[in-house]
Amino acid sequence: MNPLQYVDSNMENLISDLQTLIKQPSVSAKNEGIEECANLVAKMLKKSGIHAEILRLKKGVAPIVFGEIKSKQNPTKTLMFYNHYDVQPAEPFDLWNDPPFSGTRKGNKIFGRGATDDKGELITRIKAVEACLETTGDVPCNIKFVIEGEEETGSAHIEAYLKKYKKKFSSDGVIWEFGYIDAKNRPIIGLGMKGLLFVELSVTESIRDAHSSLAVLIKNPAWRLIESVKTLRDSNGKILIKDWYNEVTQLSKKDLKLIKSEPFDENIFKKEFGIKSFLGNKKGLDAKKALVGDATCNIAGFISGYIGDGAKTVLPGSALVKIDFRLVPKMEPKKQVMRLKNHLKSKGFSDVKIKVFHGEAAARTDSSSPFVSQVKGAADKVFGKSILNISNAGTGPMYPFVEILKAPCISIGSTYLFSRIHSPNEFARIDLLKKTTKCICLIMQNFAKP
């Protein structure tokens, strides 16, 4: 039996282990079940024949689960799998058809928070290594697992972990924590990720809410905040903050060629989200270029006054808006924060307070890297066809891996594009879990070749 046949024969074990992981809550935003899940992941690694240990930074910081198996046949090359065991909060609970931590199986789907992001992805890597060990007694190259517990809250300590354990984590290439599968069941191989800057802007006008009849005398902080936010970008999404794009380089001809060849079905996308048009009425190549290479300024939440059912004539004492900026390569989060502060001050909004939650720089792997062809070759063999994407529209802590470990990072995985990650009724498709596990087996084999 070879590794791919082993995967076929042991899918029920994979499904069962994934359900076990889902049933263990691990919500980093609420520090719910983090220690328990870290121990569970370490136990699963050991069960599959992988040496595992819990690494710690300091008290109060989620531990990293580190796994390692050394190759007898090729001890000179090391491939890392980066994943995370924490998940997003499951609220609102009433929108779930089944309990969010039940791991309910229905036909070809397994439902639950973390089913795909990121416990489903993690289980494919563990089972791929297990398949090699069980059928050959070895792995094609050295394998390392770095599995963190703070990814869903911004990976605040991953850089410190990478610096502290730099030697232990040293690798020649990193398979990232996820990878999308499009509507036609083709894996999208991501060569990069956008950066992120998450801030909170707030205005306080009075010591308490007041009757709305006093709006003739008391300034409304919600209006004030709306006026300030309106200066940040235009109606087409272009950010109006001075020097915001200063360091950004234009997409290369090679990048544009890859973007142009990448399929993107606008109608399927619009139908999935129930929208009629894109921001700025983007179409065709412009829409694809935006996903890959445009910075964003997004209002993630706005809180002020009464937001319950019915009417309440109230004048709020304060207002707060949460904003996330997606960053592209060369944008440094700290520098962008200063530009935001200078912008608000120059526009007369010095009274708007700014709280910075976290920032991550963007990262990309050169499409000409041999690592890219090794991954694509494996994906094409298992899935029939794969798509190269120079950068994912989302964000993860890829930059410190590239910067500190000096290792190229590539995203490939089992996450169906419309699997409802971060939403109620998140699910993983069993057929994609199987194919991805086989793909990981072949990636290890290709990576080990001279």
Fold blueprint:
Blueprint: H1 3-9, H2 11-23, H3 34-47, E1 51-55, E2 64-69, E3 78-84, E4 105-106, E5 109-111, H4 119-136, E6 142-148, H5 158-164, H6 166-169, E7 173-175, E8 180-181, E9 187-190, E10 192-204, E11 210-211, H7 221-230, H8 253-261, H9 266-273, H10 284-293, E12 296-304, E13 314-315, E14 318-327, H11 333-346, E15 353-360, E16 363-364, H12 370-383, E17 387-389, E18 392-395, H13 398-405, E19 409-410, E20 415-416, E21 427-429, H14 430-448
Parallel strand pairs: 3-6, 3-7, 7-19, 8-20, 9-17, 10-18
Antiparallel strand pairs: 1-2, 2-6, 4-5, 5-21, 8-9, 10-14, 10-15, 10-16, 11-13, 12-14
Helix pairs in contact: 1-4, 1-14, 2-4, 4-14, 5-13, 12-14
Task: Tell me about this structure.
- The protein is an alpha/beta fold.
- The chain folds into two domains: 3-191 and 365-448, Aminopeptidase; 194-248 and 295-360, Alpha-Beta Plaits (2-Layer Sandwich).
- Helix content is 34%, strand content 22%.
- The chain contains 14 helices and 21 strands.
- The protein has helices spanning 3-9, 11-23, 34-47, 119-136, 158-164, 166-169, 221-230, 253-261, 266-273, 284-293, 333-346, 370-383, 398-405, 430-448, and strands at residues 51-55, 64-69, 78-84, 105-106, 109-111, 142-148, 173-175, 180-181, 187-190, 192-204, 210-211, 296-304, 314-315, 318-327, 353-360, 363-364, 387-389, 392-395, 409-410, 415-416, 427-429.
- It has a six-stranded mixed β-sheet. Strands 10, 12, 14, 15, 16 and 18 form a six-stranded mixed β-sheet that branches.
- Strand 1 (51-55) and strand 2 (64-69) form a beta hairpin.
- Helix 1 (3-9) packs antiparallel against helix 14 (430-448), helix 2 (11-23) runs antiparallel to helix 4 and helix 12 crosses helix 14 (430-448).
- It is globular.
- The two termini are 25 Å apart.
- The mean pLDDT is 96.
